[in-house]
Amino acid sequence: MVPAFRRAGTGPRALRPAAAAAVGYPALRRVCARREPRVASLCGGGSVLQPGPIPAFLFRRGARCYGRADVSILRDPVHGDIELSRDELRLVDTAEFQRLRGIKQLGSAHLVYPGAVHTRFEHSIGTLHLCELLLGACDRHAARDPAGCHRTTAAERRLLRAAALLHDVTHIPFGHNIEDQTGLLPRHDRPERFAAVLGDTELGAELARQGLRDDVLAILTGAGAVPPFWRQLVSDTIDADTLDYLRRDAHYTGLELRYDRRVLDYFRIDRSSQRLFVDCEKNGMLREDIVSELLRVLECRYHFSERVYYHHAKIAAGALLSRMVELALRCGRLDAAGLQRLTDESLVWHLGALDLGDAEAEARLRRFVARYQRRALPKRVLVLPWYQNQAVQDELLATYFTPGRPEPRFAWEAAMEREAQRAFGQALDVILYCPARAMQLKEARTLVRFPGHGERTLPLDGFAEQIPRLLDLASSYPRLWKLYVFTSAEDRAVRRALQQMCLQALPQGCRNALVL
Question: How many whole angstroms separate alpha carbon 221 and alpha carbon 230?
């Protein structure tokens, strides 16, 4: 007997007949949408349904059946319908996860691309969805090749979906700028950050109730022995996280930068090593089409870095924000634990209301907050790109980008402001922005199987000599590096004069590319 729906009472999770059928039997949504009146009639009418006899026409061969209506459908603008179990909804409903609604995926990029207001909340749910699709592809390969490929269990899928859902829960407001690009704080994915957020919290308690906390922590922190594919699904070069945010960022920025969704179908899990990999061999020959699809994903990521993540106006906004946070950190009015509780909006409001106990620092903070809130971004004075400053990059990084040692940069900025006061008779803010060398470069560590290597799986970048496009990508990321100097001065003539002053104060050999 096939379980189905019978009439029930009312309640907060009440569903229309077709919607209830779709919840329990997701493969049949088109049928339900087309035949809703008949569903209602055959199920006895009413507005709320629970398991009971269901008409046979609702079932198709191979349709997935849960046996009970324990799945909710979330409509996502990027991927369409996404299924969440009741346990997953309980994780979503915790305070720690709900905070992600206020953390924009692209930080201050909305000041450049107005549509880029999507958050880590929907990205996290999208990552769960992509994890499910990857696991589905792996299981299809396992059905065709049970001797060589691993088929995931229901318990594994439940665990991995939870890990994918929670992979970004430790993100702070504007985290990539504050952590990765300026080095003010350690990265969000440090083990101690996950241990805190998934520890004595509402989210940690719910994970413990579901019996998932220890394994989720092992996956997300890298601590403990787990099958390699558990971590690869959310922390590889090409993983559920990357595949979601590339699609999502394209949708909300309006950029036509997309990979082919078919790339998901190429992933499988090696039965003996338990590693996630892509088989690029067929009949002893290289599948160039598969390699090309993998490269397209990596190329999309590079183009987003070039056009969005390191857009000069986003960099200017990020420099302003990092200085605001830095002022509060230096005065002891903000710490990493405090940032972990805030959202983008509440952080800016909090900074604007702080009493720093230092009149000069507080006045500067107020100016910066006001400028950010009305998008009066600082103007570029100097731009030192990598391609003109390779010889001095090491010296610049050692002097102006050393996490935990901001004093040389403070001193340089203060000296430039004093000199500008003398030269122009007005107070100007000067900000030096020196990012990390890596510029979000990720080695292509996704495992592949190539002809001539037997059953071994090797990192994709190990075949760079055979794949010129891969070499081009690896050499392109360092070229994105630029040191900027920004100022509050609007007058171009003032900025032109300040440009020469700043250039003379930097190490000998620095070459400016910005013409004012």
Answer: 12
Helix (H, G, I), strand (E, B) or coil at 453: coil
CB-CB contact of 89 with 72 (8 Å): yes
Q: Are 316 and 330 in contact (CB under 8 A)?
A: no
Q: Is 225 exposed, middle or buried (0-12, 13-18, 19+ CB in 10 A)?
A: exposed
How far is 498 from 66, CA to CA, in rounded Å? 68
Distances (CA, A) of 400 to 26, 379, 411, 510: 54, 20, 10, 14
Burial group, residue 478, by CB count within 10 angstroms (0-12, 13-18, 19+):
middle
Model pLDDT for residues 54-101, shown as the tens digit of each residue: 333 333 333 343 434 588 999 999 999 999 999 999 999 999 999 999
Residue with tokens 């690896």: 474
Strand partners, 347: none
Tokens of 101: 């609604």
Angstrom distance (rounded) from CA 54 to CA 498: 77
What's the confidence (pLDDT) of residue 503?
95
Percent of the chain's residues with pLDDT above 90: 66
Percent of the chain with pLDDT over 70: 84
Residue 1 pLDDT level (bands cut at 50, 70, 90): very low
Q: What is the pLDDT of residues 106-151, one digit of tens each?
A: 999 999 999 999 999 999 999 999 999 999 999 999 999 999 999 9
Q: Torsion angle, CA of 90/91/94/100, rounded to 10 degrees? A: -140
- Number of CB atoms found within 10 A of residue 373's CB: 11
Residue 27, φ and ψ in degrees, nearest 5: -70, -10
The stretches of 145-270 forming alpha helices (DSSP H) are: 154-165, 175, 191-197, 202-209, 213-221, 228-235, 240-253
149 secondary structure, DSSP code: B
CA 151 to centroid of chain Cα atoms: 28
Q: What is the pTM of this model?
A: 0.83
Q: What is the DSSP letter of 99?
A: G
Amino acid at 346: S
Burial class (CB within 10 angstroms; exposed 0-12, middle 13-18, buried 19+) of 298:
buried
Neighbours of 280 (CB within 10 A): 21
